[in-house]
Write a structure and sequence with these properties.
It is built from three helices and two strands; from the N terminus they run αββαα. The chain has a two-stranded antiparallel ribbon with strand order 1-2. By secondary structure, it is mainly alpha-helical.
């Protein structure tokens, strides 16, 4: 596995600024995509009630 160098300036950002810089925070609200990635199940169901988690095991790349 290759290692990537991370922009060290990201380490100095506040949580809010980091979320904003990656597009996860817009107009001071967490985006739905960010909520799905880092949100607690209760928050996800509150703001995205149609959310349903599913798992599919693929046998090959073309399934």
């Amino acid at each position: 596995m290759s290692r990537e160098r991370v922009d060290e300036s990201l380490l100095t950002l506040s949580d809010e600024d980091l979320l904003r810089s990656i597009g996860a925070l817009k107009e001071n609200f967490l985006t739905k995509g960010a909520l799905l990635l880092v949100g607690k199940p209760e928050a996800i169901l509150k703001y995205i009630p149609q959310y349903k988690w599913s798992f599919r095991k693929m046998i090959s790349d073309t399934d």
